[in-house]
Amino acid sequence: MIVRRLKDILHTERDIVTDTWASRRLLLREDGMGFSMHETTIFAGTQTHIWYKNHFEAVYCVEGSGEVELIPSGEIFRIEPGTMYALNKNDQHWLRADAGGDMRVVCSFNPPLVGTEVHDADGVYAVAAETGGQ
Ligand code: 9YT
């Protein structure tokens, strides 16, 4: 069994901080679960362009609020605690947190992230090479 606590991840290589979000990787490919699980904080008042062409991502909001705007349709979905959204069509989108406070979400990726991916100019994570794990 794997037991991992957020406080043990902070300030390690599993703690990824960017200008608009910070992602703490609770589970990665090397953990062998077939998906990765992250606790992610979207910083208040920011927007991030995201297009996971190579991954499915499900996101569950536990704190704060914001919105997802689909590209190119412009359809907007409000996000608040208790809301889950799943990018089941590799949907390109803007992710925004309201200015009033950070938004905290738990997200899961299939295939799992290995942990070293960075968003490219399109907001995409490349697929990691098949070197062990699942
Ligand atoms: C919700 C979302 O997609 N945020 C961007 C970061 C990503 N979830 C990650 O790597 O944890």
Radius of gyration from the alpha-carbon trace, in angstroms? 14 Å
> How much helicity do the residues have?
under 10%
The number of strands is 10
Identify low-pLDDT runs.
none
Q: Can you count the helices?
A: 1
What are the bound molecules?
Answer: (2~{S})-4-acetamido-2-azanyl-butanoic acid
The end-to-end span amounts to 17 Å
Strand content: 35-45%
Topology overview:
Layout: H1 6-9, E1 15-17, E2 21-27, E3 36-42, E4 47-50, E5 56-63, E6 66-70, E7 76-79, E8 84-86, E9 93-97, E10 103-110
Antiparallel strand pairs: 1-2, 2-3, 3-10, 4-9, 5-8, 5-10, 6-7, 6-9
Task: Summarize this structure as a short list of keywords or feature phrases.
134 residues; mainly beta; 6-stranded antiparallel β-sheet; 4-stranded antiparallel β-sheet; 1 helix; 3% helix; 40% strand; globular; binds (2~{S})-4-acetamido-2-azanyl-butanoic acid
Question: What does this entry show, briefly?
Answer:
This protein has 134 residues and is mainly beta.
Structure description:
The chain has a six-stranded antiparallel β-sheet with strand order 1-2-3-10-5-8, with no helix packed on it. It has a four-stranded antiparallel β-sheet with strand order 4-9-6-7, with no helix packed on it. The protein has one helix at 6-9; strands at residues 15-17, 21-27, 36-42, 47-50, 56-63, 66-70, 76-79, 84-86, 93-97, 103-110. Helices cover 3% and strands 40% of the residues. The chain is mainly β and 134 residues long. The two termini are 17 Å apart.
